[in-house]
Amino acid sequence: MPAYFTLAHWCIFAIAMLPIACAGIAKSGTFGKPRSQGGYDNNNPRAWLANQVDWRARANAAQANTFEAMPFFFGAVLVAHQLGAHQGRLDLLAFVFVVLRVVYVAMYIAGYANVRSLVWTAGMVVNIAILFVGYR
Description:
By secondary structure, the protein is an all-alpha fold. The protein is 74% helix and 0% strand. The protein is built from 5 helices and no strands. The chain is elongated, with a radius of gyration of 17 Å. The relative contact order is 0.16.
């Protein structure tokens, strides 16, 4: 039987790339600017990010939260596959989780804290559903 990536596997890849996108958003527009004028400091990137404010700081926080959400999502998808979950349901749930995480990041960066929290909660519920979709 040939091995192939399911949509849920591709969703793992998408979630793995999301924190990189968040970091890029936090740093956008600062490359090539002198450090004295707020330009990105590649010699000390964590300190530079820690000193950011407003949407840049929120993009960096979204990056950290996305890293925090990854292990549960990865584990849930892999457990669901291992348990022989119905592939269509698993794919749909994984895709919904990715969409919710993208919306979550957008709400975080935009500063809509209450909406962000609702989207986070929905994502957690979907992630729990992914974990148990193969349960018998």
